[in-house]
């Protein structure tokens, strides 16, 4: 079966991109990375993709005439690369409504919280300030309102009494690197589809996992 062709949008480091690239190296993985686009020409993730032989494109948003014009250029690049699905991986620029509409149900994002808790920025700082005992990450389809959309998969991690923003971010990021390739596999293999604001699973419900307690009862 033909692999799903994925375009990855980044703005920086690209560690989630690296996790997707690593997964896609396996011959039985149902998706391949067709292109990586950054809105920042200096993004470290671009170099990771280039080193792996993946086509890259740097579109500098600072010289674009408008958000719409920038997104149109991105759309054109994605189409030329034959992209079926967009993965936002640390893409930190708000998308125009027209772009989101064009890629409706064909664009997913990873966010470092258990949405709908903590949309937006500084998720770990806010979780620590609130004293929550569990946080995590979410992969979801993209809708016009930032960090909303049907939830494909989530991973929960404990917040420890000793945590600061850096240690919590590292724990969540490690979970992101497992969750994103898994969620992309679910979509690319047709195991999930969208129905309104919810995801329909095919045969995933039987994989019961144990509860995460934080703190854990002895
Ligand atoms: C990741 O933690 C990702 O969840 C977050 O940015 C980081 C990018 O890291 N994304 C958002 O906050 C989007 N709202 P990476 O460049 O190493 O993948």
Task: Explain what this protein looks like in three dimensions.
The chain has 218 residues and is α/β, with parallel strands linked by helices. It folds into 2 domains: 1-103, 3-Layer(aba) Sandwich (Rossmann fold); 109-204, 3-Layer(aba) Sandwich (Rossmann fold). It is built from 6 helices and 9 strands; from the N terminus they run βαβαβαβαβαββαββ. The protein has a 7-stranded mixed beta sheet with strand order 3-2-1-4-5-6-7, with helices on both faces. A hairpin with a 2-residue loop joins strand 8 and strand 9 (198-201). Helix 1 (15-24) packs parallel to helix 6. The longest helix has 24 residues, at 165-188. The radius of gyration is 17 Å and the shape is globular. The N and C termini lie far apart (48 Å). The relative contact order is 0.15. The mean pLDDT is 96. Bound molecules: glycinamide ribonucleotide (GAR). Residues 10, 12-16, 45, 89-90, 110-112, 147, 173, 176 line the site of glycinamide ribonucleotide.
